[in-house]
Structure formats: structure tokens, C-alpha cells
Recover the amino acids of this structure.
């Protein structure tokens, strides 16, 4: 039996009229990325992605837009250098169970002007309010024979360690706060730039576009962004991780081969 | 001119890497050493993670040593029997060294051990070389005749079991000292990413008293085997070998090495040794300095369990 072909897609997405009629009083935000798939290849030197969006604001109340982009969570291990007898030595590593590998906020105004401390903390918006996983009790875990201290979020030095993670990541351009990174190009139409450094981790990124009015979140739009190695780079990386021993043997053979070839070609005199 | 390194996960200027390979290759050809100890500090300075730098440059050492061994074996300057015994020790040392390095990395102490090793070994060897070559130069300038060197080998070399005959080196000694030297070079190769030639050559000359004509070739032969094993182990166990990085380095390296060999004939041997001693000493001090200088940030990200 031959099924009837599905109806052709509409030429353009008409704005859903019943919704805008029903919710004409509602504030809404919509956003999109110019490029939702960042490809890491041999010419990768970081990427700049434009996030653009629109605020549907039926009233004249001023609103603020905050863009938050979070990279994949990964455990972070830190050591602290301490001076013993004039020599700087590393302490035992301290482990955070998970911190975003990339984190940036861009907003229309400084975050502290947009919303209160509690609100930002609750939403996890801003590097100061970033969720870095830490259990309530400090404990040690032993992995591969090494004892790590898992930092407790109630410990007295927790804040120092936390600030250090943020400071080190900011220095590497992995964490970023831009208090005027969101610019309105026209009434209701805004854009923001996401700058990924070359060392940005690969994986799935989540972008949240928050709309604030009077310090209260009035809407949010969620986007995803994928950073992946492609082509030769991905092949090499995957090969090195899936068949590490074969990869190592090939590296050595390549090196020995080039050495042999060079002595044959250049050394003939 | 930038290229993204798939394992190191950063972009670097590739002509600069080829140039670095060429300069280190030139020095290596000039002095007859692997040159790994010069390369690691520069790579780290360029922002490449130390663990990737150490593991990837080992294959640069493989390439430059291969072309060296081919040259020396043509002149009958390689004692494969002695080299084989040392390489056996080197393999054991490399296996132990890679495991040790892995453990130290997890402990967050890898930087410390690398710095201390550079400071102690390079500092000591550099000082010795500088002292020995400067006295030779002074004697030559004053026109004195060098005192007869002690030709007797230390007695304990004969008291050990497992005696083997090494006709090419002109030795009949226990296999334990060369084996032990190999183990030591293997551990250094894993921790410092160097071939260990700068330690092996003096030890073979002054402790084992091998025939001088086979010393460099034999040490290069054992270095190939040890660093090849180190590279495979680092790749297999730690996934820290970046083939793009090492290929760029060794493309420059093999050309530089051949040039270095050609230029080596133009200088006097003791002047070369003095220059090398000075370079070795400076690199050692530079690497060791960070133990004493107040760091710019007292917190440091340690390599995680996830990345190896």
C-alpha cells in the first residue's frame, strides 16, 4: 500500500498567532547561534560564535538579557604550592568533583545590577555563583594508588580553592565575564559573542539566555552547542585513545623511518 | 602558520616548532648527544603541557639517534652486544619510570621531580664537563703535557658475577654495571624525556673504560631502544604522545643534526665540551630555579584522573 506523501513543510515558520494573542502580556526571549557545531581541525585557533536573539516585550518596562554558556563538566584537581625550607613544594592534590570546562556570561549590565545575590546564586548565573561540585564532608578517595582530598563545601579553605579554580581558568580565557557583552542592535533584537579559546574542551555546551525584569527572571531560552574534533585531528585523537599501543608503535616506526631516510638522503657525502 | 595539535589540544606556530627541532638537532649533531634536555624546557615555555612535551620529544630522540647509529655502525663504532645488555636494562628502567611518572603526576609532584632531576643531573654533569674541559684548555694554552690518566678500571667491576665478553669494547666484565646503567638511563628517559646520553657517555668512558671509538655509537644504539620503549609506553599508558608535534620537531631535527655533524669538525673537542658543559649547566639552573622563586600563583591545576 502506498502511503500518501507527508504534506510539504510550510515555506516559513509563521509565528503562532494564537499564542501571541493569548500571551500578549507575556515577556518572551528567543535566541539562536550562528554556528551550533564548532569544528576543531588543524587550523583551529579558537572560535567566535555569535548568539543573536529577540526579546518580545509588550510593555515598556526595561529588561535585561544575560547569556550564560557552560562547557562540559569535568573533575578539577588542584595543588597548592607551599614553601618548605626555602623550596616551593606542591601540596596533596585537592579534587573538585565537577566544574564546567568553559563558562562565560555576557549581559547588558553588570550582573550585580541586574539581579540580587540570592537570585543569581539560585540560578547559578555568574562565576561567583558557579556551581562547582563539592560534597558536604571532606573525604579522601584513592585512585590508582594516590590519595586525593575531595574538598568539602563547608570547609574553611573551600573559598580559597574555589577562587583559585576560577582565577586559573579566567587566566586561560576559559572563564569569562563580560558585563556589556550583550548589545541591542535594534529594539528587541540583541546579539552576544561567545569566544572559545583554542584550549576549550570538546563536548556539549549549554547556553542559557535569561531575560530579567526588575531583578526577577522572566524567561529563558536554552540552546546547545557542540565542539568536536573533525577530520585528521579527530582520527589521530581517537586512534591514540582507542588503540594506544598500536599508536605508540607507529609513532616510533615513523620516527625511526624519518631518521633512517634523513641519514640516507642527507648523510651521503 | 598555526597548527592545532590533536593530543596537546592547543594551537602552536608550526614553523617555530620546525626551527626548534632544527636548532636542537644542530646542537645534538654538534655535540653527539640526544638534545632532549634542551627541548623540553622550550616546549613547556611554548605552552605545551609538560607531560605531552616529555613524551612526544622521546620520538624526536629516536629519529636523531637512528640516523646517528647508522652513521656510526658504518664505521664499526657500535658494540651491539654491550648496547643490547644496556638496552635490556633500559627497557626495565623505562617500564618502571613510566609507572613512577604516572604515579607522581597523580600525586601532583611530577613537576617537582622533573625540576629536581634537571637541577641535580644537569647541574652536576655541566659542572664536571666545564671543569674537565677548562683544565684541558688551560693546559693546552700553557703548553703543558696532560698527566697520564689512570687506566685501571675500578676493581669492583671484576668482583661481580655474570661475566660477559665484549670484544668490540675490549672488555671482559660482569653484565651488572652496564645493565644498571641501562636501568638508570631508562628511568631518566621516562621522567625527563631525554635519552640519557649525557650521563651514559661519561659513565661508559670513565667508569667502564670502554674503547672511546665505540662509546658514542653504542650509547646512541641503547638510547634508540630505550626511548622507543618509552614512547610506546607513554602512548599506551598515558596517551601523551602527540604525533603531529613530534613529526614537526623531527623534520627540523634530522636536517639540523646533519648540519651539526658537518660543523662539529671545525671546532676543537675541548672547546665543544666546554660549550656543552655551559649549556647543560644553564639549563639545569634554569629548570631548578622555579623551586626557589615565588610562583606567580600558589595554586596550580594538576593533571586529572580523566586525562590520564
Amino acid at each position: 500500500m502506498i502511503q500518501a506523501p507527508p504534506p510539504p513543510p510550510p515555506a516559513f515558520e509563521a509565528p503562532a498567532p494564537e499564542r501571541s494573542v493569548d500571551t500578549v502580556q507575556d515577556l518572551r526571549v528567543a535566541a539562536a547561534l550562528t554556528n551550533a557545531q564548532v569544528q576543531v581541525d588543524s587550523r583551529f585557533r579558537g572560535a567566535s560564535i555569535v548568539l543573536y536573539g529577540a526579546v518580545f516585550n509588550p510593555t515598556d518596562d526595561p529588561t535585561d538579557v544575560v547569556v550564560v554558556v557552560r562547557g562540559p563538566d569535568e573533575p578539577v584537581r588542584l595543588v597548592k604550592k607551599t614553601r618548605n625550607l626555602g623550596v616551593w613544594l606542591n601540596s596533596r592534590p585537592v579534587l573538585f568533583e565537577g566544574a564546567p570546562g568553559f563558562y562565560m556570561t555576557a549581559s547588558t549590565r553588570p550582573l550585580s545590577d541586574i539581579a540580587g545575590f540570592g537570585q543569581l546564586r539560585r540560578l547559578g548565573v555568574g562565576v561567583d555563583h558557579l556551581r562547582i561540585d563539592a560534597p558536604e564532608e571532606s573525604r579522601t578517595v584513592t585512585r590508582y594508588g594516590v590519595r586525593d582530598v575531595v574538598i568539602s563545601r563547608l570547609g574553611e579553605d573551600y573559598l580559597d580553592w574555589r577562587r583559585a579554580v576560577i582565577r586559573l581558568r579566567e587566566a586561560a580565557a576559559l572563564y569569562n565575564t563580560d558585563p556589556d557583552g550583550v548589545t541591542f542592535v535594534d529594539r528587541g533584537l540583541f546579539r552576544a559573542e561567545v569566544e572559545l579559546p583554542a584550549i576549550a574542551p570538546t563536548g556539549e555546551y549549554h547556553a542559557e539566555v535569561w531575560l530579567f525584569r526588575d531583578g526577577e527572571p522572566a524567561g529563558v531560552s536554552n540552546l546547545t552547542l557542540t565542539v568536536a574534533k573533525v577530520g585528521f585531528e579527530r582520527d589521530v585523537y581517537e586512534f591514540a585513545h582507542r588503540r594506544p599501543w598500536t599508536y605508540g608503535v607507529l609513532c616510533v616506526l615513523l620516527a625511526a623511518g624519518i631518521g633512517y631516510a634523513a641519514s640516507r638522503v642527507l648523510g651521503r657525502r | 602558520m598555526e597548527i592545532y595539535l590533536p593530543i596537546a589540544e592547543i594551537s602552536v606556530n608550526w614553523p617555530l616548532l620546525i626551527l626548534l627541532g632544527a636548532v636542537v638537532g644542530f646542537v645534538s649533531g654538534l655535540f653527539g648527544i640526544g638534545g632532549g634536555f634542551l627541548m623540553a624546557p622550550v616546549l613547556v615555555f611554548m605552552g605545551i603541557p609538560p607531560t605531552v612535551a616529555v613524551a612526544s620529544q622521546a620520538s624526536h630522540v629516536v629519529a636523531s639517534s637512528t640516523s646517528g647509529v647508522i652513521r656510526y655502525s658504518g664505521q664499526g663504532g657500535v658494540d651491539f652486544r654491550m648496547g643490547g645488555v644496556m638496552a635490556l636494562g633500559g627497557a626495565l628502567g623505562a617500564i618502571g619510570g613510566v609507572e613512577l611518572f604516572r604515579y607522581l603526576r597523580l600525586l601532583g609532584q611530577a613537576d617537582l621531580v622533573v625540576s629536581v632531576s634537571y637541577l641535580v643531573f644537569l647541574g652536576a654533569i655541566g659542572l664536571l664537563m666545564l671543569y674537565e674541559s677548562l683544565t684541558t684548555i688551560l693546559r693546552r694554552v700553557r703548553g703543558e703535557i696532560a698527566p697520564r690518566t689512570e687506566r685501571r678500571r675500578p676493581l669492583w667491576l671484576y668482583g661481580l658475577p655474570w661475566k660477559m665478553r665484549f670484544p668490540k669494547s675490549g672488555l671482559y666484565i660482569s653484565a651488572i654495571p652496564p645493565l644498571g646503567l641501562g636501568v638508570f638511563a631508562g628511568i631518566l628517559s621516562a621522567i625527563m624525556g631525554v635519552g640519557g646520553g649525557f650521563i651514559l657517555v661519561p659513565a661508559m668512558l670513565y667508569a667502564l673504560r670502554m674503547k672511546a671509538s665505540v662509546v658514542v655509537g653504542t650509547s646512541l644504539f641503547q638510547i634508540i631502544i630505550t626511548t622507543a620503549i618509552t614512547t610506546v609506553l607513554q602512548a599506551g599508558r598515558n596517551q601523551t604522545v602527540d604525533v603531529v608535534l613530534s613529526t614537526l620537531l623531527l623534520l627540523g631535527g634530522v636536517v639540523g643534526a646533519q648540519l651539526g655533524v658537518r660543523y662539529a669538525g671545525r671546532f676543537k673537542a675541548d672547546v665543544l665540551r666546554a660549550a656543552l658543559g655551559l649549556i647543560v649547566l644553564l639549563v639545569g639552573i634554569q629548570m631548578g630555579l622555579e623551586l626557589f622563586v615565588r610562583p606567580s600563583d600558589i595554586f596550580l591545576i594538576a593533571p586529572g584522573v580523566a586525562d590520564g
Summary: Residues 230-269 of chain A form one domain. Chain A has two domains: 23-229, 230-269. Helices of chain A lie at 17-22, 111-114, 117-123, 158-171, 231-242, 244-265. DSSP finds six helices and 15 strands in chain A.
